[in-house]
Task: inverse folding
């Protein structure tokens, strides 16, 4: 545990990378029954994420909900705005083929989908109670729908109200439990630290580290764009408008694991994208792996350097 504590977001990163190594070595899994398969797969991600969102919601007090919305609104708008600028700019200048081998499809999926689990874990380590509550709102701006909306994918361009309500439900439930049940806020705060390692392992069980090699240099370019361009702008907005140290902005500078499946989903809706699916999937997967590793390191450095200023 002393070693894990020295690693940025180590309570999530160590189980995640360990599970990724297992999945990379044994792609077909190592489970032989219901319990072992559940333990060594990513089948538990959704329920663990829902529990984590409920715990995050419990940290929202009605007295500080205005500050939570303000902080979340600033960093969310900054991240989405820069993503839109990049996607439409590259589309206008270079078309679907993109630039430097990075396709437009991979760019849209990579910059418009963050890893909310990493965001939660880093805010637990480096943020205050309000920062920890931001994760509930962060869940509303990630997932495949945003990329589909931006690329204008037919009938799925409109995000269903029930999908938004479904994402918000654990947060809303957590808010009411934290407000009306005395002592539950402290219990949930402690439980998040228990959930995070299992969530990290479950996420890692779907990551194939070989995708970094398969994507080549273009996968690293996508990770660079997510961190250096989108992340930097988000940090700037957090410091400028929220008057915060900026580590929360860095915590948002990732590509979500579920973004790997988005290129194929988009190609099913619009077959004209099919030629780009294979490369885009590898590039997005590479960005997922690289940002999951680098973003906690950058956030740790930034928090230690600027948190007290």
Result:
């Amino acid at each position: 545990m002393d070693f894990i504590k020295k690693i940025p977001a180590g309570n999530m990163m160590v189980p995640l990378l360990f599970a990724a190594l297992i999945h990379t070595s044994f792609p077909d899994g190592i489970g032989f029954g219901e319990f072992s398969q559940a333990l060594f797969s990513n089948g538990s991600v959704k329920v663990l994420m829902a529990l984590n969102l409920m715990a995050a919601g419990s940290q929202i007090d009605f007295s500080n909900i205005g500050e939570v919305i303000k902080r979340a609104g600033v960093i969310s708008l900054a991240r989405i705005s820069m993503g839109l600028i990049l996607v439409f700019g590259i589309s206008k200048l270079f078309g679907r083929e993109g630039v430097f081998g990075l396709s437009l499809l991979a760019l849209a999926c990579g910059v418009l989908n963050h890893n909310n689990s990493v965001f939660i874990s880093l805010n637990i380590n480096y943020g205050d109670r309000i920062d920890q509550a931001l994760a509930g709102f962060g869940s509303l701006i990630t997932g495949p729908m945003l990329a589909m909306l931006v690329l204008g994918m037919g009938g799925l361009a409109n995000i269903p109200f029930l999908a938004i309500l479904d994402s918000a439900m654990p947060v809303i439930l957590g808010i009411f439990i934290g407000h009306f049940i005395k002592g539950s806020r402290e219990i949930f705060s402690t439980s998040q630290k228990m959930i995070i390692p299992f969530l990290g392992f479950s996420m890692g069980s779907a990551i194939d580290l070989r995708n970094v090699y398969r994507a080549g240099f273009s996968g690293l370019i996508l990770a660079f764009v997510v961190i250096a361009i989108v992340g930097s702008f988000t940090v700037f907005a957090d410091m400028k408008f929220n008057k915060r140290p900026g580590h929360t902005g860095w915590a948002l500078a990732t590509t979500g694991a579920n973004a790997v499946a988005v290129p194929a989903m988009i190609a099913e809706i619009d077959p004209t994208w099919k030629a780009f699916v294979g490369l885009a999937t590898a590039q997005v997967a590479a960005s997922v792996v690289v940002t999951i590793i680098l973003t906690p390191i950058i956030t740790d450095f930034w928090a230690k350097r600027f948190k007290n200023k």
Remarks:
- Residues 153-159 have pLDDT under 50 and may be disordered.
- The chain has 16 helices and no strands.
- Residues 274-306 form the longest helix (33 residues).
- The radius of gyration is 19 Å.
